[in-house]
Amino acid sequence: MLKVPSHIAVLTSGGDAPGMNAAIRAVVRSAVYYGKRVSGVYNGYEGLIDATFEELDSRSVKYILNHGGTFLKSARSQRFRTTEGRKQAYENLVKAGIDALIVIGGDGSFTGAKIFSEEFDFQVIGVPGTIDNDLYGTDFTIGFDTATNTAIECIDKIRDTASSHDRLFLVEVMGRDSGFIALRSAIAAGALEVIMPENSITYDQLYQSIERAGQNKKFSNIIVVAEGNKLGNIFEISDHLKAKFPHLDIKVTILGHLQRGGSPTVFDRVLASKLGVAAVEGLLIGRNKVMAGVMHNQVIYTPFEEAITRRAYINPELIRINKILTI
Ligand code: F6P
């Protein structure tokens, strides 16, 4: 028989992402709408273990929709990787009368959620919140759109100075295991090349691309480099290029955590609102061990197992388009 939860906890986990606050707001307000109790857990899974819970109402989440970061704070918990840590978390939840959990985070967070849910037969739903966009089961993750908009705002500025001095800039964007931010910002900013974990670009191909740019009288160029690319560290790449093209003025810029902050875009606010509601409604109809996502504009629920093991799809068409447009 379907056991409908009466008290839902929500937490944010892993790297923060703009739009997480909007997702928390959506969870809290929809839980209240459906007559459920709802508690916020501070500091991600650490807060489950330390029982830092606070009961929230619809007014607790006012004026947070437009703020980056997460007011519940986030953490990458080592203790939750241990059986003792998870046991403590379970006991704390039971003691507080909480019978379902919503985890807003990325693949690492859902791996923990899956293990926990299986171990203690606890109902858990995930909401994809990561700037990396690297989760299977959703076209977009919360924070990706804001992060890419931030990245191109910065790259546009770099372009101004690059073109004034005819320089080649290597710009590193985030993406530990994936190149979604790199590819999208490369296309949006007109970058000559994109180096990311999913493409196995070689130095020879890079050299050819730079030579072709020179032949086509493209004197200022930008190459976007995902931090998790396979070619190497951005400074090593820069050293290789400097050795090959000693006449070029080559600079390196690392955008880093700039990409994680800032007010979420309209897209991220709407996505977060949709998915927060979908998570609560999913719990109410008995969904468990799944991630709520949006594919082709439809809400879908994907088992954690698939969301974390299957690879999100980088569209090769975008790589092809970039090649054509940067001639
Ligand atoms: O997972 C999101 C992400 O921003 C990655 O792109 C990046 O590699 C990582 O988090 C950085 O994590 P931290 O803030 O813990 O250094």
Features:
alpha/beta, seven-stranded mixed sheet, four-stranded parallel sheet, 327 residues, 43% helix
Task: Provide a descriptive summary of the structure in words.
Helices cover 43% and strands 18% of the residues. Helix 5 crosses helix 6 (180-189) and helix 6 (180-189) packs parallel to helix 11. A seven-stranded mixed sheet has the order 3-2-1-4-5-10-11, with helices on both faces. Strands 7-8-6-9 form a four-stranded parallel sheet, with helices on both faces. The chain is of the alpha/beta class and 327 residues long. The model has no long low-confidence stretch (mean pLDDT 96). It has helices spanning 20-33, 44-50, 83-95, 107-120, 144-165, 180-189, 203-215, 234-244, 266-284, 304-309, 316-325; strands at residues 7-12, 37-41, 53-56, 100-105, 123-128, 168-173, 193-195, 221-226, 250-254, 290-295, 298-303. It contains eleven helices and eleven strands. The structure holds 6-O-phosphono-beta-D-fructofuranose. 6-O-phosphono-beta-D-fructofuranose binds at residues 15, 106, 130-132, 174-176, 227, 260.
Report the count of strand segments. Answer: 11
Bound molecules: 6-O-phosphono-beta-D-fructofuranose
Structural class: alpha/beta
Element-by-element helix/strand order: EHEHEHEHEHEHEHEHEHEEHH
Helix content: 40-55%
What order do the strands of the largest sheet run in, or round the barrel if closed?
A: 3-2-1-4-5-10-11
Please report the distance between the alpha carbons of the first and last residues.
62 Å
Shape: elongated
